[in-house]
Amino acid sequence: xxxxxxxxxxxxCGIAALVVSTPAAVAAPVQPAASPSSSAKAAPGKSVAVLYxxxxxxxxxxxxxxxxxxxxxxxxxxxxxxxxxxWSLVDKGGSRYQLVNYNSGxxxxxxxxxxxxxxxxxxxxxxxxxxxxRIDKGGSRYQLRNVNSGxxxxxxxxxxxxxxxxxxxxxxxxxxxxxxx
Length: 181
Description:
Elements lengths: L2 H19 L31 E4 L5 E4 L8 E4 L9 E7 L2 E6 L5 E4 L8 E4 L9 E5 L5 E5 L5 E3 L7 E2 L1 E3 L9 E4 L1
Antiparallel strand pairs: 1-13, 2-3, 3-11, 4-5, 6-7, 8-9, 10-12
């Protein structure tokens, strides 16, 4: 065997070993923990969170937030089985919920009352700008109305990574969201 061929074989084997031993660069997909009809039980004093895709009725894309930083933008992307697309609803009483991202453990928030204010994630606190009401629009679709501003979560169009914002609540599908598991 020539030294040139031997070097090539060793290089290929080294690359193969590196690929096999290197963890994937992206987060591994997850499957939802439980559906509302599941018989999942928690230990005493613990609750089982149901994980949802929050899917826009107009674009059929899902809410996503990348990373763990406070203030990271909430955008829409193709629905996939990645932890940064899963959300749980935490009941705060009075038909109010916090939407908590599975990956970061942080809450969906919109600051202030202006139309087009961006949706971001932030450490979950008991502040009304993190509280949302689900307004049933029929067909398993809801508007998500911010308790602080009285405005609804909206995404314009179907563009990949389009910023999610709040806007005056109107009856348009870009403000309708489905919760699927």
